[in-house]
Automatic annotation (TrEMBL):
Chain segments annotated as transmembrane: 245-264
Limits of the Glycosyltransferase 2-like domain: 7-166
Record keyword Membrane present: yes
Keywords associated with the record: Membrane, Transmembrane, Transmembrane helix
Protein name: Glycosyltransferase 2-like domain-containing protein
InterPro entries (alphabetical): Glyco_trans_2-like, Glycosyltransf_2, Nucleotide-diphossugar_trans
SUPFAM superfamilies on file: Nucleotide-diphospho-sugar transferases (SSF53448)
Length: 300
């Protein structure tokens, strides 16, 4: 395994403005040898034209004729890499110039299957407010797909990203848990930093994300010895996101206080506010109960 050569896989779909900033940061990386594989997942904006006109020997572009989803696109990227270590980031992220150097130091043993980096939203000390989508991974705790690197041999041994988990937005979690369950170890590299670009929730994206937590009954059944590996918000191995119950039980007071805070920060979109509080919470509980019953797992 050579740690001085990296392949970087980036998948994109209709987010050209984000992608341009991402590519700019990738080309500023200070590292001996790396390639960038960009998978355009059937974008209908000007992404294809932009990518076709890129002239850089580090960049290889692959166009999907139709949108196939993130997992399938990542798997296409994996198959088109040339080096032993594959780093993943997303089109709405920007990487630090020392990103690969810091990730590479985590591969200090041949059994290290993957290394997790640290992700900040916009900047290290930024404090945002809803409806900003505050995507972060402090101290490299979670195996987020926007800042992680795998040994290529892992995919030969453990197979690729599973598209089934895309609807739960947890294909990254399942992949990492699966790899460890197959006998690989992992490392953390908090110095390997990625910055998530500014992004806001929409009512549609909030409702879609309500399904995310319902992945845990599935993962508990599939990986009973490993599903708690990265410290998910599960109390006593059965209560998922326990704070939801407190929020719902105190909804009149809790939501009123949140609404006052929301308005004081100059926010006016009441539709998105009430989509989050309480519709999202109720939907999240529903999906969790549904999957727990379906998989015959004691979780709620």
């Amino acid at each position: 395994m050579s740690t001085s050569q990296f392949s970087i896989v980036v998948c994109t779909y209709n987010r050209l403005d984000y992608l341009k900033k991402c590519i700019t940061s990738l080309l500023k990386i200070d590292f001996p040898q790396y390639e960038i594989i960009i998978i355009n997942d059937g974008s209908t904006d000007d992404t294809q034209n932009f990518l076709d006109n890129l002239k850089n020997e580090k960049i290889k572009v692959i166009h999907n004729q139709h949108n196939q989803g993130l997992s399938a696109s990542r798997n296409t990227g994996i198959k088109n890499t040339n080096f032993d270590i594959i780093a993943f980031t997303d089109d709405d992220c920007e990487v630090d110039k020392n990103w690969l150097t810091k990730l590479s130091k985590g591969f200090n043993d041949k059994q290290v299957g993957f290394v997790i980096g640290q992700t900040f939203y916009i900047s290290k000390n930024y404090q945002g407010y809803f409806p900003e989508r505050l995507v972060s991974n402090k101290n490299a705790k979670w195996p987020m797909g926007c800042n992680i690197a795998y040994q290529k041999k892992v995919f030969a041994t453990c197979s690729d990203f599973d598209s089934f988990f895309f609807k739960y937005n947890n294909e990254d979690s399942e992949m990492a848990i699966r790899v460890v369950s197959k006998g690989f170890s992992f490392g953390r590299a908090p110095e390997a930093i990625v910055y998530h670009q500014a992004m806001n929730w929409t009512s549609k994206s909030i409702l879609r994300s309500a399904r995310n937590a319902s992945v845990w009954p599935i993962l508990k059944k599939k990986y009973p010895k490993h599903y708690l590996l990265f410290g998910p918000p599960i109390k006593f191995n059965i209560i998922i996101n326990k704070e939801d119950y407190l929020y719902l039980l105190t909804a009149p007071i809790f939501i009123t206080l949140l609404l006052i805070r929301y308005i004081m920060h100059g926010k006016k979109d009441l539709k998105i506010f009430f989509t989050k509080w309480p519709v999202y919470l109720i939907l999240r509980r529903y999906y969790i109960y549904k999957e727990a019953i379906k998989n015959k797992v004691l979780m709620f």
